[in-house]
Amino acid sequence: MIGVSYIFLIFGFVLVFSFIFWVWTLADCLRKETDEGNTRLIWVIVIVFTYIVGALLYYLIRRRDYSHH
């Protein structure tokens, strides 16, 4: 049986990784996203207010668009 300390350790790693991923996607959006039609502003709002969900959406949707150019 997994001890409580291991559960907290795993949870801590997940939180740290998700925060790093969130900061990376936010920085990527600010650096690479064009500002045509407020696209950058909308993505920044989505990433900031939905945290990891917005970061995952940005990564899955926008990164794929960049790889096709």
TrEMBL record:
Q: Where is the Cardiolipin synthase N-terminal domain?
A: 20-63
Source domain of life is Archaea
* Membrane topology field: Multi-pass membrane protein
TM helices/strands, residue ranges: 6-29, 41-61
Per UniProt, subcellular location reads as:
Cell membrane
Quote the InterPro entries the UniProt record gives.
CLS_N
Question: What's the main place this protein lives?
Answer: membrane
Q: Which UniProt keywords apply?
A: Cell membrane, Membrane, Transmembrane, Transmembrane helix
Keyword Transmembrane included in the entry's annotation: yes
Return the Pfam families for the record.
PLDc_N
One GO cellular-component annotation of the UniProt record comes to: plasma membrane
Under what name is this protein listed?
Cardiolipin synthase N-terminal domain-containing protein
